[in-house]
TrEMBL record:
It comes from Paenibacillus apis. Residues 1-30 form the signal peptide. SUPFAM superfamilies: Copper amine oxidase, domain N (SSF55383). This is Copper amine oxidase-like N-terminal domain-containing protein. PROSITE patterns: PROKAR_LIPOPROTEIN. It comes from the Bacteria. Keywords: Signal.
Length: 552
């Protein structure tokens, strides 16, 4: 059981420790109260910043497959520059910047408020919009959560103090005074420098867990604070979801004739062998369904405290032996959490203990193989901050001329692509590099319903089936007696007439080899090659007779 828990929790706990240690140590060094400074940085509610972020994939030594090499080069060309990020409060923020891919820049402007999030891409005719009412941003939208801002910040501060006080300092940790430029202004700052290796990180996990396990009152206080903050939030979230899903689904006419007794629910039960997890600690999660808000605070605090201590103490029993076995059974972890995984971090504090500048380089060693030809990934991020805790006004995206509702009516690739200027960089990226409009269809020559039929040596295909597979719109024009197919990519109209060879593409007349016809089942058939090419696709007949239709 102990080995199972260690396998289950060992790596997540190590990654959790890595995340916390990204913020460096916790004890006072050279007069700098690191604990206080880091906790304060976690509770800033407003400010301005700029940032650069880049990634480098380092290929393994030896021969790398050309396709893998191209992919590595493409990803290495990716970087993010944020020229201006503004946070007004928890519910309002904006970001202006650009993503670089290969040798092209793709500027963007994003803003978030109580109504939703708007994203304006350079070259787009209208911004993309995600409304909070769609439920996509969160169960309880940012503006609603903002009224709990003080409580959330208070809990964040308490949680930070709890975790930081149990962390020991890394071996490499130094503090010095320096002059550094922030937003073009030379400032006198306190520089905190730390380096943490992967093998050092593993050595810091056990002391951290040991210290936490002994702090029973600290755990109780933290869980109690969590309960006080998130109990009302969860209540409101439940209410929000109940109202949203009832309106969205249960008032739908579909449910009027929906009979649950028609279903055998036993068919949906998933049976599994839980003998390996027979211990009560593993079965009950943390001793509480976190989404059950009927529990009283004393019950929640007592149950979760006991369970957390039990889990940690179980991990600590024979920790060294079990960790050794884990690393032997999973040798890849020896590389990822070895000496070649290194975090190099510099934090620059002003006299108010505000982080004004950050410089981070993280190298993650990887177990290279023929199928995974990477020996490491390097991440580099540089950040500057100002006006922390001050009055900030965001740069809102202009939505007055209309938006594209991302969660509104489903959009075809062509409809989405036509929102961008055809000569813009983003248009070319979507169409050429990402093949946003690519579609392929296989047709069975022996299946007349979803396949083809041959009349007078001409292969025909069901008009609606092929058109909709290629995202084209189909409608009947009663006045002209034409079937109108709208090319999804170009927007051109293709017109055909049943029992006629005459058609048109974008207003230009064409004559078909054989007339369009309607079979005895009322299905309209059109010459395959004409319809495919009119919709921008290429037709290929394979050796086994199957027909492959491909649109770039």
């Amino acid at each position: 059981m102990k080995r199972i828990l260690l396998k289950k929790w060992g790596l997540p706990l190590a990654l959790l420790a890595m995340t916390m240690l990204l913020l460096s140590g916790c004890q006072s060094v050279a007069g700098l109260d690191i604990n206080k400074a880091l906790v304060q940085s976690m509770t800033q509610v407003s400010g301005e910043s700029k940032q650069t972020l880049s990634i480098e994939l380092v290929p393994a030594e030896g021969v790398v497959h050309p396709e893998a090499q191209r992919l590595i080069e493409q990803l290495n060309s990716l970087s993010l520059t944020i020229d201006s990020a503004k946070v007004q409060d928890q519910g309002n923020m904006s970001v202006k910047g650009a993503v670089q891919y290969k040798e092209e820049q793709y500027p963007f402007h994003l803003s978030l408020d109580e109504q939703g999030m708007a994203i304006q891409l350079e070259g787009a005719k209208q911004p993309i919009y995600i409304s909070t009412e769609s439920g996509a941003l969160s169960g309880m939208y940012a503006g609603e959560a903002a009224k709990y801002e003080d409580q959330i910040l208070g809990f964040t501060k308490q949680a930070g103090e709890f975790f930081f006080k149990h962390l020991s300092n890394p071996k490499t940790l130094s503090v010095k005074q320096t002059q550094s430029e922030v937003f073009g202004e030379s400032l006198s700052l306190t520089q905190l420098h730390t380096e943490i290796r992967g093998d050092e990180l593993l050595a810091m996990v056990k002391p951290f867990l040991t210290s936490v396990a002994k702090d029973e009152q600290g755990i109780k206080d933290l869980i109690g604070a969590f309960y006080d903050v998130y109990y009302p939030i969860m209540q409101e979230a439940y209410s929000y979801y109940d109202d949203y899903y009832y309106e969205e689904y249960y008032e739908d006419e579909y449910y009027d004739d929906y009979y649950y007794e028609d279903y055998d629910y036993e068919d949906y039960y998933y049976e599994y062998d839980d003998s390996d997890y027979s211990d009560v600690t593993a079965d009950r999660g943390f001793g509480l369904d976190l989404f059950s808000i009927s529990q009283s605070k004393p019950v929640v605090v007592a149950t979760m405290t006991a369970t957390i201590q039990e889990v940690i103490n179980t991990l600590l029993t024979d920790y060294d032996a079990n960790m050794k076995s884990l690393l032997e059974e999973t040798p890849e972890l020896n590389v990822v959490l070895g000496k070649d995984t290194v975090l190099d971090l510099d934090l620059y504090f002003d006299s108010k203990l505000q982080i004004r500048k950050q410089a981070m380089e993280l190298t993650i060693a990887l177990p290279a193989s023929e199928d995974f030809p990477l020996q490491s990934v390097k991440l580099k991020a540089d950040t500057e901050q100002r006006n922390l805790g001050g009055t900030v006004e965001i740069d809102a995206v202009d939505v007055t001329s209309g938006v594209i509702d991302y969660f509104g009516k489903p959009m075809t690739p062509g409809e989405m692509l036509r929102n961008f200027e055809s000569d813009s960089a983003i248009y070319k990226l979507l169409k050429d590099d990402f093949q946003f409009t690519y579609k392929s269809v296989y047709l069975d020559p022996h299946n007349s319903y979803y396949g083809t039929v041959v009349n007078n040596n001409t292969t025909f295909v069901p008009l609606r089936y092929l058109s909709e597979e290629l995202d084209a719109g189909v409608k009947w024009d009663a006045y002209s007696k034409n079937i109108v197919i709208t090319n999804d990519i170009t927007g051109q109209e293709i017109r055909v007439t049943p029992d006629s060879k005459h058609a048109s593409i974008g207003g230009k007349a064409v004559v078909l080899e054989q007339p369009v016809f309607v079979n005895e089942d009322g299905v309209t058939y059109v010459p395959l090659r004409f319809m495919s090419e009119a919709l921008g696709a290429k037709v290929t007949v394979e050796e086994d007779g199957w027909i492959f239709i491909e649109r770039p």
